[in-house]
Each structure stands twice: as structure tokens, then as C-alpha cells.
């Protein structure tokens, strides 16, 4: 990889995956990178919690699109596979319904077709194959024209991909409606409609475009040995090996400016760090809400509260399960999906929620001896910064989770260390400005995906990354946002003609685009 000999200073605010991705590319290109993180470790929402002396993943648990990270590391001259050991999952997820029915989706498409045919009939298997082909076509249409573009627009998408490709993505139909063409069985419609929640959205309001996530998972879901947080640690080590500096436990209070452009940051203790460029890996609402100073409020448009994505109620701990046979990824559906999302739209936690379980220590369905780590999750409204009725108290949260387990015949016997409950108000405190929204802006309506800010903010010298900016939430998408921010910064610096010999005008070379998904 060609290297920039510049030692221009870049300050990255936040060590989430977007900030780490941008920092890795920029450090590899010779920039002097400093990453400031308020928490004590990297990862952002890819966090860990300590329970009974064990560190448990308490954020994203699904890893897809590994090619995104292979390319990031390769451009820094590093081998991703040597630093982040992976195991591919044969079963993508196990799914269960209150009537006792059960279905596994497989990494092998034919195996999934056969499982669906056995579950709901031969015609259901045939229709699944049609759905899989359509999901792949949508994904291919958007690979370069949307996901890899810095700030795509509907018109630009038509110009690049053609009107036929644009219409093929079905932006004007909801995913729930579109799925009705493929899955008369309501359980299958519920299963594939759940992909909207990967973006913190409702399947009854999200565009059918999100069917592409099904194809992304079909392309491969991996389990990271040591947990998802291993990825963040590996990225930190790679950046430090390239000369980057991390400052943990320090909070940025102000993005400072000089002559109308970002010129550095100020920490809570009053320390100022000068910078030639600043990359923000905080939620756009933290900027728009003034949490990083008055000048930063004008750098991004505000997001109305009704535009927020979903939040969650999670329980992290160790224990023993009995009853329903769990897989590494298991989804236990509610009896009434429309009622569940109607409650969420009202700002209430559903009385009968769909429950996601990650059995953290399992590879496949084999349970370890004794206790195992787990993450339980149900969707909740992002109202963690409001004093409103409808956000349940701790006891109510435990009852909801227990009810969701028991209706599927599943029993959890927690270990001696109390599990850790995280509610929307807790996520709001962890990630200021969000109200607990875990995915930035909800993807509701045909134009939602075009309304996220791009990598260039309205403030010169300030660049944006993270799940609240383009191309959106999910581990690989956030990593792509970090790439886009780094590329924009490098191109802008090149345009000033201040590069020394050996620079690479035009930014970082791109290989053929990978597919998109969520993680």
C-alpha cells in the first residue's frame, strides 16, 4: 500500500468500529492518529460486561462481510486472519414459535430450502429459492452504487445503476408486504421480516430493500474466537503498531474551530489537542444536540425523536439453560408480530416480545459443561432520555424476559453472579444524545437511507463515521463508514496540494465491493 509521508494530525473521537476503521486506514497512510475514548476499552457498542469474573459480549453478536475487514487490514499491510481467528457457522440461526415449531436456517442455501420445505411444504421451499434470488439481486444492485458511495442520492443511484436496478430494490414497498409474495406461511414472513430489526426498524415500515440482509447472512456468518470484542482489541493493536495513540477514560467536551474549520478538541479536564483533521465517531445527535460544543451543532442536521431507531432491553450473564435446544444464535418469536411492533410504535415495550438469545460459549448447538455465557435481547423504544410511562422498571424487565423464555419451554438457571440488565435509559447514558437508540435513524420509508449524513460534515475538517451516518448501522456498514471518512479526508488533503512526494491522490484504492449486511 502506498504511504502518505505527511504527519498531519488526526484526532478520532470515539473508539467504536467506525472510528477504529478510519484510524486504521489513516495510520496506515502515515497520519499521526490519536483516538480519544470515554470508556476504558475500544469497541463502542461492541462492548463487554464483567459477570462473575467473566468478560461477556454485550453488544453486536453477528459477524458478516468479513471481506470488509480483510481489506481494511490488508491496506495497512496486516493479515486479518492471523489477528482475528474465525469459525464459520453452518447454522445461521435457530428459530422457534409459541406453537412449538422450530426451524434452522443454514449457511448452505439448498439445506435451507430443504429445511423450509420440511417445515412448511415443498411450495414454501420453492418460494424460498425465489426469495433468495431476489435478495441477492437487490444486494448486487446496491453494492457499489449505494453502500460504497460517499453520499448517494436517488438520482445518482439511477444514473449509476439504472432505473431498472433502482426499482428492483423495491424501496416503495415495505418488507412485510413484499415478503407476502414469497411466504404465505406467517411464521416464515415473521422470520424474514425480522431482518428489519437489524437496522433498528419495524418490518411494517421498513422498505423491502432490507431483504438484502438475508443474502448477506447466506454469504457467511462467522463466530469470532474470544468474542466480538476480540475484533475491537485487534484493531486497537493494529493501530498502535502503526504508531497510533489511544487515550481511554477521557471525554471530549468541545470540537474547537479556527477560521471556520475543525482545529482540535478539548477534553473534560480542559486539555486541548490540536489537530489538522477531526473524525467524530459519536452519534450525530450528540453533535446536533451541542454535546460537543456550540460550533458542532451546525455540523449535522438534527434527527427528530420520532426518527430514532429501536433501543433494547438486554440481560447479560452466565447460567444453565434447559428445555428448548439453543443454538449459538436463537430467535424465539412472539405470537403476534403486528401487535408487538404496534406497541413499539406507541413508545411502549411489548407485553409479548420476540426474544433473541446468543449462547456466547456455543459453537453450533453444543452446550459447554456447567455454566455458559449468554445475552438475551428484546426490542424497546428509544425513549431512554424521557421521563415517560412505558419504560419498565427492573422487576418488570425481568418478568418480560422470563415470560419470553417460559412460553417456549426454556428455563434459565442463572449462576451465582447476578446477570446485568441494560435498559433504554442505560443505553442513553452510555451513548449520550441517542435516547438509547442503538442504530441511529430508523430505516422507515423509501428515502430514509438517503437522509443519513455523509462522511463530510457541514464543518470543514470534521468527518463523520458510525451507525448514525451513511451507510447505516451494523458492524460491516459501520466499518465502511469509517473507510468512507478516511477516504474523504485523504481526498480533501490531496486537493490542497500539500502532499509530499509519494502521496496517493484520489484516496485509498478500492477493490471490488463486498455485499452489505448487518452485524
Keywords summarizing the entry:
disordered C terminus, 3 domains, alpha/beta, five-stranded parallel sheet, disordered N terminus, FAD/NAD(P)-binding domain, 16 helices, 519 residues
Short structural description:
The protein is an alpha/beta fold. Helix content is 32%, strand content 20%. It is built from 16 helices and 20 strands.
Q: Can you describe what's shown?
A:
- Strands 6, 7, 14, 15, 16, 17, 18 and 19 form an 8-stranded mixed sheet that branches.
- A hairpin with a 2-residue loop joins strand 3 and strand 4 (about 55).
- The longest helix is centred in the N-terminal third of the chain and has 26 residues, at about 120-145.
- The chain has 3 domains: about 10-45 and about 65-85 and about 225-305 and about 445-495, FAD/NAD(P)-binding domain, CATH 3.50.50.60; about 110-220, no CATH class; about 310-430, no CATH class.
- It is an alpha/beta fold and about 525 residues long.
- It has helices at about 15-30, 65-75, 80-85, 110-120, 120-145, 155-160, 165-170, 175-180, 185-195, 210-220, 230-240, 285-290, 335-345, 395-405, 425-430, 475-495; strands spanning about 10-15, 30-35, 50, 55, 85-90, 90-95, 100-105, 220-225, 245-250, 250-260, 260-265, 270-275, 275-280, 310-325, 330, 355-360, 370-380, 410-415, 420, 460-465.
- It contains 16 helices and 20 strands.
- It is globular and about 65 Å long.
- Helix 1 crosses helix 16 (about 475-495) and helix 5 (about 120-145) packs across helix 10.
Blueprint of the fold:
Layout: E1 9-13, H1 17-28, E2 32-37, E3 48-51, E4 54-57, H2 66-75, H3 80-83, E5 86-88, E6 91-96, E7 102-106, H4 109-120, H5 122-147, H6 154-161, H7 163-168, H8 175-179, H9 186-193, H10 212-218, E8 222-224, H11 229-241, E9 245-248, E10 252-258, E11 261-267, E12 272-274, E13 277-280, H12 284-288, E14 311-323, E15 329-332, H13 337-345, E16 355-359, E17 372-380, H14 394-406, E18 410-414, E19 420-422, H15 424-430, E20 462-464, H16 475-495
Amino acid at each position: 500500500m502506498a504511504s502518505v509521508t505527511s504527519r498531519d494530525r488526526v484526532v478520532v473521537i470515539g473508539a467504536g468500529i467506525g472510528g477504529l476503521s478510519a484510524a486504521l486506514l489513516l495510520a496506515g497512510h502515515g497520519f499521526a492518529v490519536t483516538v480519544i475514548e470515554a470508556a476504558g476499552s475500544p469497541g463502542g457498542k461492541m462492548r463487554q460486561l464483567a459477570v462473575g469474573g467473566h468478560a461477556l459480549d454485550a453488544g453486536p453478536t453477528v459477524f458478516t462481510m468479513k471481506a470488509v475487514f480483510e481489506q481494511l487490514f490488508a491496506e495497512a499491510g496486516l493479515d486479518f486472519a492471523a489477528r482475528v481467528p474465525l469459525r464459520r457457522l453452518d447454522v445461521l440461526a435457530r428459530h422457534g414459535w409459541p406453537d412449538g415449531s422450530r426451524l434452522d436456517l443454514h449457511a448452505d442455501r439448498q439445506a435451507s430450502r430443504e429445511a423450509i420445505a420440511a417445515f412448511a411444504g415443498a411450495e414454501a421451499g420453492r418460494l424460498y429459492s425465489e426469495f433468495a434470488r431476489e435478495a441477492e439481486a437487490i444486494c448486487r444492485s446496491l453494492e457499489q452504487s449505494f453502500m460504497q458511495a460517499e453520499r448517494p442520492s436517488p438520482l445518482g443511484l439511477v444514473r449509476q445503476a439504472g432505473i431498472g436496478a433502482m426499482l428492483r430494490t423495491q424501496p416503495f414497498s415495505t418488507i412485510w408486504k413484499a415478503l407476502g409474495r414469497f411466504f404465505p406461511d406467517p411464521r416464515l414472513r415473521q422470520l424474514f421480516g425480522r431482518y428489519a430489526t437489524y437496522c433498528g426498524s419495524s418490518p411494517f415500515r421498513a422498505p423491502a430493500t432490507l431483504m438484502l440482509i438475508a443474502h448477506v447472512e447466506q454469504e457467511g456468518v462467522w463466530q469470532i474466537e474470544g468474542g466480538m470484542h476480540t475484533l475491537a482489541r485487534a484493531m486497537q493493536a493494529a493501530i498502535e503498531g502503526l504508531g497510533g495513540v489511544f487515550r481511554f477514560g477521557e471525554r471530549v467536551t468541545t470540537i474547537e474551530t479556527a477560521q471556520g474549520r475543525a482545529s482540535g478538541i478539548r477534553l473534560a479536564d480542559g486539555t486541548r489537542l490540536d489537530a489538522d483533521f477531526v473524525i467524530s465517531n459519536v452519534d450525530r445527535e450528540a453533535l446536533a444536540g451541542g454535546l460537543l460544543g456550540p460550533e458542532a451543532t451546525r455540523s449535522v442536521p438534527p434527527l427528530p425523536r420520532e426518527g430514532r431507531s429501536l433501543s433494547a432491553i438486554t440481560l447479560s450473564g452466565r447460567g444453565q439453560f434447559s428445555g428448548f435446544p439453543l443454538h449459538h444464535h436463537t430467535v424465539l418469536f412472539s405470537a403476534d408480530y403486528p401487535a408487538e411492533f404496534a406497541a413499539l410504535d406507541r413508545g411502549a415495550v411489548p407485553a409479548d416480545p420476540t426474544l433473541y438469545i446468543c449462547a456466547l460459549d456455543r459453537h453450533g448447538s453444543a452446550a459447554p459443561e456447567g455454566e455458559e455465557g449468554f445475552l438475551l435481547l428484546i426490542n424497546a423504544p428509544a425513549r431512554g432520555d424521557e421521563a415517560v410511562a412505558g419504560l419498565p422498571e427492573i422487576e418488570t424487565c425481568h418478568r418480560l424476559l422470563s415470560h419470553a423464555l417460559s412460553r417456549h419451554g426454556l428455563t434459565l438457571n442463572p449462576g451465582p453472579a447476578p446477570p446485568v440488565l441494560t435498559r433504554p435509559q442505560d443505553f442513553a447514558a452510555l451513548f449520550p444524545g441517542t435516547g438509547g437508540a442503538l442504530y441511529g435513524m430508523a430505516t422507515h420509508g423509501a428515502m430514509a437511507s438517503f437522509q443519513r449524513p455523509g462522511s463530510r460534515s457541514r464543518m470543514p475538517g470534521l468527518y463523520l463515521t458510525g451507525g448514525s451516518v451513511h451507510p447505516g448501522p451494523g458492524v460491516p456498514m459501520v466499518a465502511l463508514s469509517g473507510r468512507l471518512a478516511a477516504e474523504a479526508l485523504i481526498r480533501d488533503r490531496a486537493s490542497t496540494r500539500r502532499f509530499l512526494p509519494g502521496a496517493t491522490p484520489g484516496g485509498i484504492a478500492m477493490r471490488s465491493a463486498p455485499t452489505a449486511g448487518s452485524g
